[in-house]
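REQUEST FORM: STRUCTURE PREDICTION
Request ID: SP-0412
Submitted by: Lab K.M.
Chain count: 1
Length (residues): 313
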Amino acid sequence: MQLASYINDLLFRYECVIIPGFGAFLTQYHSARIDKSTNTFTPPGKLVSFNRQLQTNDGLLANYIATLESCSYETSLQRIRNFTGNLSLQLSEGKTVTIKNIGDFVLNKEHTIQFTPSEVQNFYTASFGLTSFVSTSISREIHQKTVAALEEKAPLYISPEKRVARPYLKHAAIALIAVSAIGFGGLKLYEGSVQKHNFAEKQKANSLIENQIQEATFFIDNPLPSLNLTFTKKTGNYHIIAGAFRVKENAEKKISQLSLKGFEAAMIGVNKYGLHQVAYSSHENRLEALQTLRKIKTTNNKDAWLLVLDLNK
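STATUS: Completed
RESULT:
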C-alpha cells in the first residue's frame, strides 16, 4: 500500500492526518519513560491513536499525494477512495488490516473498528536515532555496606608527635604577624587613594562629554517625510491555501485578486519545492479553520486545502 508511506511521512510533521471517508490518525507527545520492572529506558515519542469520527477531507493527504506523484487533485482523491474501499472490504471479511509502522485494524463483534498502534515507529523527530535500552539497576546500599565493613577491618589511628620546645619560634611568629599587619594597613591606604583618584577622573570625563553633547547642534536641510506603515501579521498554525506559485509575481497577483474579494490573503512563505504559498486566511483554532475551509470550497474554490504549519519556526 503506497498510501501507507505517505501517511507515515505526514505523521512526522502533523498532529492530525485525516483519511477522507475512513478516519483520522492523531499523535500525542509523551516524555521519556522508565519501566522499573524491566529497567527499560524509552526515549520521548508520540503516541498514535485513531478517531473514526474525523472523516471530513481537509486536503492535506490529497495535496501531498498530488504533489509527489505529479497528478491532479481529483486523481489523488480517487486513489484515497480506492484505498479506503479496500480497507473496508478486508475488515468486513473479518481480516486484520495492517498499515505498516502505524498499527493494526480489526472489526469487533459490535462491528466497530478497533485500532492497535504499532510500537515500531517513533514519529517524534527530536528522538530520531534513539532506541529503548535496558540498564541493570545500581545497588548503592550493597556498596555502602561493603565500604563500612572495610573501615571496621582497617581503622585509622592518629598518634601525636613528640614536640621539642623551641621558644625562639614563638618570637619569630609574633614578629611576622606584626610585619604582616603593617603591610596590610599600608596596602589598604594605597587602594583607597587609587579609588579616589579614579573616581575623580571619571567625574571629569563625564562632565566633558555632557558639555560636548549640549554644545552639539544638528541641522537637516531636507528632512524626509514620515511614513506610516501597517503590517498584517499572520497568527495561527492553520492556513487555508489558495495556491502555490513558482513565480513570486503570480503569487502577489493572486493576493490582489483575493483581497478584492474580501479575503485577508497573504503569502506565508516558500515550501520545500520552491513554490510561493498564498493563503486565504490563517487561524489559531483548527475547528474554525476547517469550517472556513468548507465554506471556501463550497463558494469559491473546491481545490482549497488546509496546511498546518508554525510560521515562527
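NOTES: The radius of gyration is 37 Å.
Reviewed by: T.R.
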